[in-house]
């Protein structure tokens, strides 16, 4: 609730077009919807037309379907991440046209078209095993209204595979780089481009990668400037941030 | 065993109303009950009328039912936490009226009424996935004789959801705040109220939350005064402590 | 800013006694004071008469003295923690009567008397080396208006030293237990009393205590109910919370 | 070295205007300068007119001055970070007009003007002790050609201090949020704006913050979308990335 | 191979009763037996009459049975730890009288009697969930020829349960104390007795116990003298060492 | 792509035998093969005749079989590591003669003979449970063209088992030592030989080995010179490096 | 306070030879001495004639001297560990004949002779840098009444140095093994002897030893039976425990 | 002591040319020299003519000089690492011609020439701050008889600096790669060469590098084959191993 909103409300109260009690109620109720097990934030979406997002993990299939059902009443695009097949089944009962992306573990429901900016986002993956996280990032960026270029399996062990795609990487407005193990790929990409690099460590690997810790630390301590990091396996966060930058 | 108890016993011995051997035996036996696999502490409960509590994890269904069966002879309320459906089945064989709370993973057996103080405890949950821990806290506080207000899914990503419930939060005598991931919610609540805040980190999340470590460290290093922390996922501990403070 | 405040302001705007621009300004300015390097929060103190607190670490002596100088204009008691001798010297230039507690590393400036409640807080210390943290807790509780009983060097290696003071411990309304190394003392105290126990791990020790980590983990995983934990070495936080509970 | 450069070189070789050996040499030498203890990367700077940057830590004063002396021959702006007073003295011998920022621990040498974009970057600091890192970020952003708004000491313990500056925060094109301890501030800011948030954890604090680990984990696991994280205390990295986004 | 053995062999070689090649062969072969997947150490057992021990974890049922089958030819007692029901089945095919202890997860085969010393070992358990580790310790001590007293569920949360058994504890020649969570019990016992205490941390618990780390660190940093620690959940190691001390 | 390759290409362009566009294309395409989910690196293998290697973990059976099918067209030996029975089934559909090593979890396809050097590699295993990792190392070294001597179950608890095999160990050109738990065996071997020792920590064990961390740290801090370490459980990496050294 | 003591006191009260208040007082006071900053435990020493021990770290020189001064009145041997030269100076003012061991950082004051048992303790050191911790162990064992054999610098990198002293090691009743870095020496010794081994990890080393963590984990996960571990650098604890076992 | 030595000794005993007692003595004494504070291992050096090495850290200047003085009697080259200026002063008193390398913190004493193999070792450094560790590696390799090529400051942030030196790197028989921060450089080098890569993580950096942990984990989890890792900052270990491989 910004200063403009507050000014208008105060003006309404002053001119008598808004009752004090109504103003209080309005402040309390128009931004959220309480479903009992979830308090849905209507605020940003209403204003921006952005998709509404559900984080599936830790919710029951019934809860996910219930939230989808409520959101359908608002005619926005909907994205659910970290979904299980059970959740897909439940959601399709309330919305048969929901698209399930098996690799990305996402459900997408497209209710309206979002215009695309001319620039694109590159999603670069170090290894085949990093694909689920990369795909989550790509799907997120797409439903938020962006064109995405995918570059797969170009990790540092055979770095010339990366150089073959250098033109695609250099012309992207923002690069998402997804890597597990030592997480060195964002450092390389960051040294080659003049655009922001969003590094996504993955928990892929074994031994001393400790659930993604090695990739995370490697990316955080990267010597290449222009790089920042999101949480381990957080493809959604990377896709969301890349969209924000690409659509600035 | 406090100084008063010791005085009385010594007096009894002096006046001859208590034999030396009896005194020794009494010191040894009146506070505990040995079931072979468990040594039950009768002491505090006898004196306070507080519920008796069983921690289910790591026990067999038979052990849990055996402890319940013994406790039933003492006519107190009983709470079992971290129970599995197997345990519920076993317990219901010795006590069919046992209440099972699926979300909180608790069994409650109410044998007598505990009078409620006029004040209440607020249990505030950051996200839907934190509900099991929050519910364990709420159920614990209730069976120990407290009124509880639940506030669900008001995490910092949409902080205005919290402000809508600020009056309920500010009028509580003590607040329990349950959060996973970055665990920032207790800092916010602690900055808004003049009452003790009990922070409960949860293991909910993924990536760099490392089984609740990120939330735990965030809560411990919180800059808001008046906040203290219990173990990760320890809803029971929070509910017990909140009850202790609310009933002071 | 609670609902009542908002109602009054809206009413003032409606009746015309408050101009819209004034209302906006009021919302923006009355709670903070910007010193350039610090934004002082006047809000809670104004309402409660509580002492104002400065966290010394990471500030320059000049910054600490500057904040004190501003606070003196508000006629409240003042507490500064984690101060160095340099800071004491700087502060005494603007307030010669500032009291310096060498052990607790605190500066206290008492401008007015706070009435004491009848109950007291016990501060229990496991070892001689834990005294600075314990003293910080005690000094904090005292300046916030509480009577404090100190119990020194009663760690678990000679647990009968604790039992000698059991009556003082059991009659306290809240116990602060300060311990380093294995941090077992709060578990023992928590098993002996019916009142809240605030556990303060200290970084005292060597080897596998890892800067207080062993005491912290020990206290968090304590099997005794009614115990909660504050940050390592956070004597101030424990004293503040204990005061809050003691003055409920 | 991008595809265009390669095309031109190949064309030159084909037409005979470039000898094969010269082409090989050119590929080897035009992008770097070897000073014995350092291999300076001339490539990006030549093309972009960006400042040249020296990371001071771990270098001797003589090495820093030597690198500056070489860079002065290239007529670019120069930034040195993590400098000690010794380094400042050495640098001023080769460049008396070098500006030393004591708080940010930076040396800046401005050789030419960089045109500013109309938008600005907000640098938000949780506490006074976080100022050195925040100032490093701000100085970096400024020398790279950006307008910066500083917002100081608005941490979550008194969150209304933040709301007073909300308009400045919301109108920024990108926000840098610098915080130690629990690192909760970026979560709050991220929930209030529609623009990218760059979170910088600091090593400020004590106890369980473990050299900035608590703030780092808190920021990584933040529930607010649009947030990414740089290394602990990495003010330079945040300033550089923010400049990149602001000048897109 | 000690100095006496070497002397005899050298004497044999000198007097010609032992050929050089035979001596070399003898040095190579008499102490081990190679089964392909395991190299069995015959040396100590032959000399001492001690039981032979198999660590089950990570071996296949066939490997365990194969080792047992070989060991049976040597007429010693046999102990297998960390066995699964599958292993029990396999072993019983080659030795039907093998005793399986379900709680301790051990197989014991008694081929001859070992005389018991007059003193005994006390095995003290903090909670019901620590029983498997404690029982592994007790079974090990028994098959190695010791009398064992078991004391169950006397953790620090109700420390008077421990005091009731103090005479049994004080008269033991060595105490094994098994505890999870905060691992405080060995500190208490160590402060009460004049005999060695072997502390066994268990991985029992949840939250910040991190797989037994909290108990381990607590025991290592224990302030009570006379205490040493074995690996997490290492009941066998504790039983073995206690036997060694009890039979000195 | 080394300097010679570049010279030839430039010469071809100069003499007109290579078109500029062709040269660009050639640079881009001849070293990799894009399968959609994987970008195969043809470069090294083509030149060296080395086997091609597939890391199975995190790939689907279909992906593994697809990569094998492509590689078969290149007539090299093929090694797949970390395979599951599902993958074996899929691979045998496209290549029935694929050899599956159950212990090592590898698939090997031998298309041509590699000449063996006269020296050999010793693979030394501390315990039976370390066999899968050791076998992965041995299988890798063999398919890369080396003779391997296996020494099994000679851990430090019965160190004379090691001494019996000392001649085999000392005559190896390089030793691979595989150990879990405390990881002490490489230190011992390193102190006995004048040849490189490659230490492989395994995740075998329980308690404070923390997934191989104890063995890893032990090996890294080993006091014996000539020892280096690969990732936890990384039998392949050890076998590959040993082959590289043995075939120098 | 054991059962016998309690019986006698109760009998005294019964026969009237002990007043109730006196009994209460006696229970409270006879075991401890309160010095304000320290609560001295007189209990065990009185009964056993054991030396009294002061842990110097974290105490001021004045506090150490004060405790010594009090202890001198009790005519026992005195040991102070982790002392600084400042403390030595302070102590010598109240007791000029105090012996200072520079390497071990101990003060010893011998007031009476303790008879030695016929057996001895071996203190084995891996490297020269481990000497301070080893010497602390040796000095402790000696003042508690034991003969000590020292074996220096026989780490695993040159393991034959150890075998040269094997007879001394094998004839000891208990071995203390002090080692930093990978901490492998106790495993070796444990595999060679039939007596208890007390392992002392030291913080000696660099890199991945992380303040002794690598040695600690190595010793805890040791495959050799009969080994237990004390805290990092805890020479005193090892000497005390070894004395306890040697004097059983 | 290998099998040949044992054969000869046994033969000597058999023929009577060696007395049994002499044989025993010989086995005990010929390989080590006891200086009281150090047990010097003469064995390998005598046989190989390799330099003798002293690890300075944790030793006193007097101890270092004493060991040097003894070693001088054996006419081998001598290397001391991790020396302080104090040690240099002490050593020069017994050997004025000792060479001190300030950057590498080494003392070298060359008593005889070691013939060089035709191949060389490349020592590659990521940043200027990594030079001390790299120089320790280079000095070690040189005194052990190897030619060394140094490549400085070619970290991944400007990866073309590395490609300019690719011919030197590819022609080396073994590469040592020294890097701090994210430790990505060995991955890159490992992907470019067919020779062994020895990775040395350094503790250089700040923030989430945690004393070299980030570089260590990055190198261990490197996806490039042929790479192994030594301890953090262990330049000596890398130089020693590289020499071993280069001189195979």
Entry summary:
Eight copies of one chain form a homooctamer. The first copy, chain A, has 248 residues and is of the alpha/beta class. Chain A has helices at residues 3-15, 20-29, 43-48, 61-72, 85-94, 131-143, 160-163, 166-171, 185-192, 213-220, 235-246, and strands spanning 32-34, 39-41, 52-55, 78-81, 99-101, 106-109, 120-125, 147-151, 174-179, 197-201, 227-229.
Shape call of chain A: globular
Largest sheet descriptor of chain A: 5 strands, parallel
Point out poorly predicted stretches of chain A: none
- Strand tally of chain A: 11
Oligomer: homooctamer
Rg of chain A, Å, rounded: 21 Å
Helices of chain A, by number, come to 11
Mean pLDDT of chain A: 84
Beta-strand portion of chain A reads 15-25%
Structural class by helix and strand composition of chain A: alpha/beta
Instruction: Bin the helical content of chain A.
Output: 40-55%
The arrangement of helices and strands of chain A along the chain is HHEEHEHEHEEEHEHHEHEHEH
Strand order of the largest sheet of chain A: 8-7-9-10-11
Span from first to last CA of chain A? Answer: 21 Å
């Amino acid at each position: 609730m910004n200063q403009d909103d507050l000014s208008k409300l105060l003006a309404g109260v002053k001119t008598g077009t808004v009752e004090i009690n109504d103003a209080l109620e309005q402040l309390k109720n128009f931004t959220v919807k309480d479903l009992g097990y979830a308090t849905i934030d209507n605020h940003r979406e209403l204003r921006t037309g952005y998709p509404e997002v559900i984080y599936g993990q830790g919710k029951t299939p019934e809860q996910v379907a219930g939230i989808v059902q409520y959101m359908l009443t608002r005619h926005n695009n909907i994205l659910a991440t970290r979904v299980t097949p059970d959740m897909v089944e439940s959601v399709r009962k309330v919305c048969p046209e929901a698209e399930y992306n098996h690799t990305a573990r996402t459900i997408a429901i497209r209710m309206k078209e979002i215009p695309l900016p001319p620039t694109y986002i590159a999603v670069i993956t170090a290894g085949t095993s990093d694909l689920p996280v990369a795909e989550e990032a790509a799907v997120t960026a797409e439903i938020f209204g962006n064109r995405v270029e995918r570059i797969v399996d170009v990790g540092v062990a055979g770095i010339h595979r990366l150089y073959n795609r250098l033109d695609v990487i250099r012309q992207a407005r923002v690069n998402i780089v997804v890597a597990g193990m030592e997480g060195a790929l964002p450092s390389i990409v960051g040294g080659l481009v003049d655009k922001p690099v969003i590094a996504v460590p993955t928990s892929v690997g074994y031994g001393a990668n400790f659930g993604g810790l090695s990739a995370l630390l490697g990316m955080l301590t990267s010597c290449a400037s222009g790089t920042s990091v999101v949480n381990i396996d957080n493809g959604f966060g990377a896709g969301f941030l890349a969209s924000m930058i690409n659509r600035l």
